[in-house]
Amino acid sequence: MLSRGTRNAAARASRSNTPKPRSPRPRYLNTAPILSSPSTSKKNQSTWAAATESAHSVLTPPSTPLGSSAASSLDDPLSAINAEIGNLKSSLFRMLGSSNTALDTVAKYYFQADGKHLRPLLVLLISQATNGLGGKGWEQVQLDSQNHNKSMDDSLTSKGGVLNDWNPEVNGEESIGAQIFSNPFIIPNVSSITGSSSTQQSSINPQSPLPLPLPSISPSPFDSLLTQEGEPSILPTQRRLASITEMIHVASLLHDDVIDASPLRRGEPSAPSTFGNKLSILSGDFLLGRASVALARLGSREVVELLATVIANLVEGEVMQLKATSEPEKEPTPKGFEDYMRKTYLKTASLMAKSARAAVILGGCGNEQANKSGIQSEGEWVKDVAYGYGRNLGIAFQLIDDALDFLPPDPSLGKPSLGADLRLGLATAPALFAWEQYPEMGPLILRKFDQPGDVEIAREIVGRSNGLKRTIELASTFAESARELIELLPESNARNALVGLTKKVVERVK
């Protein structure tokens, strides 16, 4: 079951997943993190974007810019994925078009910035690493993807006026008078549908038009298989899933920046500071709505369920975080730390874990559609591998992100550091570990670091404690578990890149 077709010899020869040697750096509080990506000199990057720079250094030679002709040649065993990440912004803009100019602008605002898009990258890598492991299920989804009469943008509702969801990026500009809402909705020729009498029919306005038919859809460049010689194809549904995950993530950023009153995002003015809280919240909701529509059109109930619970998890995690700041634990307890770790999963790792699992399902592993067709589905175990990898990697990533908050600020990090989390009243892993050693951390946590000098005192306590060391060690444990899981898959270029990502995540603080 683990066998894979013979791979292109040239692709094997050109693969290089070993990070370049770097000078060791002590993990002290006065040591700035070194990001191993060559492009970390860029400013206006968030911590997340900086880490995915490292992820891409696993995929692309450092001297080769993403999207260049060299990067998309067959000399790069993952050039198709690199090219798709480069096209992600175009795909997202296509999905987010709105006839409302203000909504269209704010919904696309955070997608204007450069970033390396860790979540869609994870979806595409997992897809390529596992496609083909579903046996007959994989054969079935491949056949389904070859239905050229179906687009990822096709509506499931037969009459477009019912949805009232005109997307100018897909349907062109809405013509004046295409839909009239000042008149009642009336169905003409009811008798032909219900067999009603002529008396009943006379009450129907024969001049009322039928509900608006489905508008024409401009061809999408993202509906085809993503193929590359010697590598498994990535399905259109998996490509669309990659975009959906980024939409859900950015929706959470729009909401978080309102909650945290953040003036900046990736070194630029945040959406709330630019457009106001109301438009930012509504635009985040709009993103979630469009993501939900796109999910429904993927055709898998299990995938819809997974990603819908991600949205609920994000809200649950935010509420847990609010409670942790308003009703903090009075002393260090296992329950308090478990609550912190659960919040970390809900706010960060859930999306990575469930989108990875969803990608595997769309690739035919344990596929419900295959079961309905009477086909014995294979690869159920692969779903658990993908979920476990995403969950462990996501938690490791957030633990390192929390550690970076106690290190000196770096121009390449959009996050300001110097205790940004502390200033929000958040006690993350380094502070919680330090509390176990130094009880004087307790009063600072209880008053949410809100008195003058509290943030500096807390950072000093963490600096002389083992809080950073234990946080990094815990992150390393989760990253190692992610590596062990992903290595259960057959060896491939994509799998090796996923292995490399588990190392790069932790190396951000070295």
UniProtKB/TrEMBL annotation:
Residues 1-18 have a biased composition (Low complexity). PROSITE patterns: POLYPRENYL_SYNTHASE_1 (PS00723). Keywords: Isoprene biosynthesis, Magnesium, Metal-binding, Transferase. Residues 33-61 have a biased composition (Polar residues). Its cofactor is Mg(2+). Pfam families: polyprenyl_synt. Residues 1-73 are annotated as: Disordered. InterPro entries: Isoprenoid_synthase_dom_sf, Polyprenyl_synt, Polyprenyl_synt_CS. PANTHER family: ALL TRANS-POLYPRENYL-DIPHOSPHATE SYNTHASE PDSS1, GERANYLGERANYL PYROPHOSPHATE SYNTHASE. Belongs to the FPP/GGPP synthase family. This is (2E,6E)-farnesyl diphosphate synthase. It comes from Kwoniella shivajii.
